[in-house]
Amino acid sequence: MGLGTHIWQVDPERPAYDELQPAVQVLRGGGLVAFPTETVYGLGADALNPDAVARIFEAKGRPQDNPLIVHVSSREMAYSLMGNSAERPLLDRLARAFWPGPLTLVVTAAARVPRRVTAGLDTVGLRMPSHPVALALIEQLGRPVAAPSANRSGVPSPTSPEHVWEDLKGRIEGIVAGGDCDVGVESTVLDITVTPPLLLRPGGVTPEALADVLGCPVVIDRHARAPASEKEPIGPVRSPGMKYRHYAPRTPILLVEAGDGHVERLREVVGAHQAEGKRVGLLVTDESALALQLDLPTIRMGPKSRPEAIARDLFRNLRAVDKLKVDVVVAEGIDDAGVGLAVMNRLRRAAEARV
To answer: For labelling, which of 52, 113, 161, 299 has a CA lying 20 to 30 Å from the CA of 275?
Structure first.
């Protein structure tokens, strides 16, 4: 593309109107702007401009059958994108509890939503982000913003403006630099067009929290726990992050699932690859790093007792994997309760193999 990519520094807590206006004008003109949300940096375009939306797929190298999430700044804006008013009461109930925040609700799409946004489906995912910069940007534009993660497709998602610059400089018009993201994994995606609602992608809102509001256990799509095998056919998907391998560094990752004796299993897998003459690195919890006591390049994910911290730093750590300069990285799985489900969803999709 060869674009000159601007960087606009803004106050992440109280972005000034004038600070955001250059980015707003780019969006209004059909351009692409990366901006911070509480989950990851998003790559935004005017959701109602099909040509602008098409440029998202081009910039990211994103498959055309992977739908986009649309970000809104109010429930009224969300209503304008819904094609079935019967879904409003449930959206309202969940929005009161979790919006603004890291929850995407899949609803029946209104006719005005471009098919490029929905990947030709009759549904669309809607989310109201809580990051002050994201909300202010959408409010000033006065239109919904379609925004997947602001990275090249397949690699770890960006949680800082530096990550966006590494991936998309010269391919988009600008980056609104508003600091690092707090949650670190993308939003939870819940399909409310079906009864009971179906969790399509785990994220910043846990199944347990959703169950408290819904008054019943959440049904979790099987691909939310583990990706489909390459041989398994999978049809159209209503959420990003379900169909393709994602989040993968260039260095192969071997994932050792959590369970009894997994520290010794980590040691065995490391030893087996060292016996083959491979340079091995580790991506493990603080506790396992101490227990293993191996003199290897190591990325510590954080303590097991703080899965939210592991989630926050997960993509930064996955991006750091390639800086270890090793042949293979042995990664540790964690318990998939709470936000651990989102962490394990990403690790399983990033891994070349699970052992």
So the answer is: 299
Q: Is the peptide bond before 100 cis (omega within 30 degrees of 0)?
A: yes
- Full-model pTM: 0.93
The CATH superfamily label for domain 6-225 reads DHBP synthase (3.90.870.10)
The residue type found at 324 is L
Whether the upstream peptide bond of residue 196 has omega within 30° of 0, thus cis, is yes
Give the CA diameter of the chain.
Answer: 62
CA 19 – CA 200 distance, rounded (Å): 36
Q: Which CATH superfamily is domain 253-354 in?
A: Threonylcarbamoyl-AMP synthase, C-terminal domain (3.40.50.11030)
- Dump pLDDT digits (tens) for 106-116: 999 999 999 99
How far apart are alpha carbons 303 and 284 in whole angstroms? 9
Give residue-wise pLDDT tens across range 37-88.
Answer: 999 999 999 999 999 999 999 999 999 999 999 999 999 999 999 999 999 9
